[in-house]
Write a structure and sequence with these properties.
two-stranded antiparallel sheet
């Protein structure tokens, strides 16, 4: 990836307003596993990883999601 690559917004990609409304950013680690991971798996993604993007002394400001699609391509999104 070059330094100019941009990440798409995960919630925009999912296109499901209900998921975004259920997701509680204060419980992000729990909801990544109980809401986001199952939705990405339902869409056929595997090898799903969550990591910090930007952060400050209070915690993450953004999160990066990496997953592999059914064709073996790695996809990346952000949220936060």
């Amino acid at each position: 990836m070059s330094g100019q690559d941009t990440l798409s917004d995960l919630f925009a990609f999912l296109g499901n307003r209900e998921i975004e409304e259920r997701f509680d950013f204060d419980r992000y680690t729990e909801h990544e596993q109980s809401i986001l991971r199952p939705e990405l798996e339902r869409l056929g993604f595997g090898k799903i990883r969550f990591s910090d993007g930007e952060r400050d002394s209070f915690g993450p400001l953004s999160r990066i999601v990496t997953a592999v699609d059914q064709r073996g391509r790695t996809r990346r999104w952000c949220y936060g």
